[in-house]
Task: structure prediction
Amino acid sequence: MAATLFAVAVLSACATESSATLPPLLAPAATDEPAAAEAAAAALAAYTGYLAAAEEAEHEADHNHPDLKKYLGDPLLTQVRLGIREAKEHGAMRTGSLISAPTVTEVNLDSVPVTVVIQDCLDATNYRMVYADDTDKLVPGMQVGRYLATATATRYDDGRWLISNGAAHRDQPC
Result:
């Protein structure tokens, strides 16, 4: 069962893994342009909300947690929900919390839709996959620690900013 859980369970912070080499965490995108600064702030708020909603959903093993739709857009919404549902079906859930240090690395005001790229150093040391019937027992093979993560925030036609894509780069510590 542990191997199956490892294959299907996703850390809520990022639904996909990537081994592409990324540059080290960058300083926040500096801009004097008010629209870019506003987009960056809105994207970071959506990202922070996403992490909190996903963490709560994983603690409750609730793939239909209502806050997920507030902060996530597809394809990431579907990926996160699927990961939570599959972990629950295999008797697992998350405990603890993530520590996040996100920065905006790119603001794309000319793209359609408008997007913002976020890079984060996630510390999942205390964010553990455990068995739901014995929360003191860790699911074997689940990686924890500090690693690089990336996310894309998208501004939808209705003005909402949602995190639409994310990737965990667990092979790249930060």
